[in-house]
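Entry type: protein chain
Record version: 2
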Amino acid sequence: MTLRQPLDTGFKFHVRTQVSVGTEVLDHVFKIMESHALNYPLWLVPKGFHHAVVKKILTRLYGKTTYHSAQVDDGWSEDELLSTTQTVAAGNFDCMIAVGNASCIGYAKQILLKTNGVHPLSLIVVPFGTLDGSECQGRFHTDSATVESEDTVAAHAIFDGRLTRLATRKEVARTMCTSLLHVTTSILGTPDPILMGFAESTFRHSHQTLELILSASKESSSWVDCTLSASAALHAAGVCADNRGISTIVSFAETLAIPTLADRHQTAAALLPFVMRYIGNTDPMLYKEIGKTLLGMDPVEFANAWVTLSEPKGTDRVIRQLCGDTHALLMNPRHIRELEPLLSLFPSQGGGM
């Protein structure tokens, strides 16, 4: 089943990041590296609580053999980035394996850009924790900007259940809100049948994740299944976003992510129900197909369930109110006519929904 019939067969589509998902899939990392003709990795691993878990897995992989690693903090500095870049330049590495959250993976992508053309490297990511949907895309976030570059696309993403299980319910829910915003903005007006297949996969895995997150205890094997299902949804949504290109809605959400007000996950959660409602108003057939993929659950209710699980704060509700009022304002044709003189004062940015 596809969410929508294609309008024509003239389209381009690419899946640039391969993915492996499993309870102990990281044990096969050497075979995964070999499939990409890679042999000499530098491991980037998180500091703090999660470091011990990652170190235990690496000790099991390497035994008494020496491996090269660098620790990455969420609040990494330019000096740390320069030091790691120099380590890469001085070594014989052909790849980096970034283990951790969006910050750790963004750190690795920064190094890729700094060494591009001087010391060619491939990137393998092992995402877990707080993620923002860019792990399998050619983009990452810094403190001041969003960087987009094809040179930072990961060759492979590995989701290992021993690591994904470390995520909290709030982290999973926040990641799912961001992923669902990516996939809903990808299918607005897009006829590509392969993209629709990935969109369907995102909705199916996210619905399965919702069922599991409501019933699984943190210590049970069902929690591993829950986090791995969320990982599959994250990757499928990332593929959709990678083929979608720039989204005005996603750009708006990122613009609203202002320190001390809200982060990208909160703004994504604030906008997601309105995007679902917009699909229902403008394309009822697509909305109905999404509901079928969600096994009969109403898409707006589905979005709101994830928003609730993400534990929204007061700022989320303020943003939702703002977006709701703006949406109602712009949906009225009379208001649009009256606002045209005002809107003409703003420079056009381009980009689709």
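Comment: The CA atoms of residues 179 and 234 lie 6 Å apart.
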